[in-house]
Amino acid sequence: MAQYGRITRAIRAATTVETSGAEPIPDAERTGGSGASFTLWFSSNVQFSSLSSGLLATAAFGLGWPQALAAIVLGSAIGAAAIGAMSTFGPRAGVGLLVQSRGPLGRLGSAVPAVLVFFKACAWFAVNSVLGSFALQSLLGAGFGLAFTIVTVSQVLIALLGYSFIHLVQKAMAVVLPLLFVGVSLYGFAKSDLGSSFDAHKAGPLGFAGAFALTVAVQAARSLSFSSYSADYTRYMPAGTSPRKLFGNAFGGALLGSVWIASLGAAIGTLTFVGTPTDLVTHVLPSALGALTMLALGISTITSSCLDCYSGAMAWLVVGVRMARWQAVLVVGAIGSAIGWAAGQGNYWESFQNFLILLGNWIAPWIAVMLVHRFFAGAPAGGRPGRFGAGFVSWLLGIAAAVPFMSQPGVFTGPIARSHPALGPCAAAVAFATAGLIHLLLARVLRRAGAPRTGRPVGPDSNPEPDSSPNPDSNSNPDPNPEEIPV
């Protein structure tokens, strides 16, 4: 009976609408363990976009399956490490990463990545809504409009309930999704050509090195996109949560889910190119297994995209818009649905490909600035950040350094990528390294000059308390006073 009572209370708490916004979470409301990060990031990576990123390695870039697997593991590990590292930022101050970025980037400087995260979330909401609709349309034999409505409304409802319900859903999906995907996995691996070799014709001017690097970059970029949200889903955890355990759980969940589904995609890519979930049924799977797979893809898309809706709303609040969190969720849902509906009526991939590629290269240097500021360049507490901090300069210079390497066919190709196509996939790595090194140097110069800065050095096992107290009217989205939060 006692166990039943605990389960009932947990479900009741998870299904109560979250009232907190971007302000720090009080100690009394901190709960949960680091294991929740494993199930959340595992479930979120068991989805069609993971399968697509793996499929590109063999069907589009020309790698053989063993080569694709090696690149997928490497790229997934890079992205999972970013998710794990950013997850540790949540418990230490009880706020998301965007709030904490006001320390190194400044009050106005941090608004720029917040706006980018908001639009990125809307775009991914749209992408996943269309993918989920295709899967549901195939499963139900319904029109696109009905399928699209079911998918988008489901995603918004999960995000409206908030943090606890999202974790509850992802825990359930960590059990359900593997059961649903096991059939297509066994069939896909059995039927595909796992001994396939490199196809120089598909790779074209990239060559083997470029195709391998591009697979790593694509696989890492998908998880890097998630990493900008990571602290949103750990900010309710107690301040004493072990950073090492939290990193390990988030890293392990993201890596396992990503490698499994992406390697399956690479295997299917040795047979045919799959552009939408419907193609799996028409070109790869028998009808009975196809129906089960469409169900799995539809559910996984909904449970993944609710993160975009929730974190997009959090970004909207951090920008400074005065509204309740649930209202911000509706804003993201409305914008994402409008974009998705328009794209779903035409060529889906053609509508979104270039836009999403352009979003990628700014996340890596931002993460570099945050990591350097936390572990190597934090400054004494007690100050107040200016409008633009050293981190903002470092971030912009990191992006600028990557421009010559950027390769977005049909949009922009930098001079280095044009003359050496194999170096094109290095843009994000160049941005990360440049921003991190510049921020480290600027922080040391400022420290020697005695310039006022915020925050203090925070080691990986430190769990500083936020100095600010939350506004009691959390539904009105009070200013979280991030300049008072040790970053």
How would you describe this protein?
With 487 residues, this protein is mostly helical. The protein contains 21 helices and 2 strands. It has helices at residues 2-14, 35-45, 48-59, 65-87, 89-93, 97-100, 102-105, 111-140, 144-161, 163-191, 200-203, 207-227, 243-269, 277-284, 287-319, 325-344, 348-360, 363-375, 390-402, 415-419, 427-449, and strands at 407-408, 412-413. A two-stranded antiparallel ribbon has the order 1-2. It is globular and about 65 Å long. The protein starts with a helix and ends in a 38-residue tail after the last helix. Residues 348-353 and 452-479 have low confidence and may be disordered.
Describe what is shown at a glance:
The protein has helices at residues 2-14, 35-45, 48-59, 65-87, 89-93, 97-100, 102-105, 111-140, 144-161, 163-191, 200-203, 207-227, 243-269, 277-284, 287-319, 325-344, 348-360, 363-375, 390-402, 415-419, 427-449; strands spanning 407-408, 412-413.
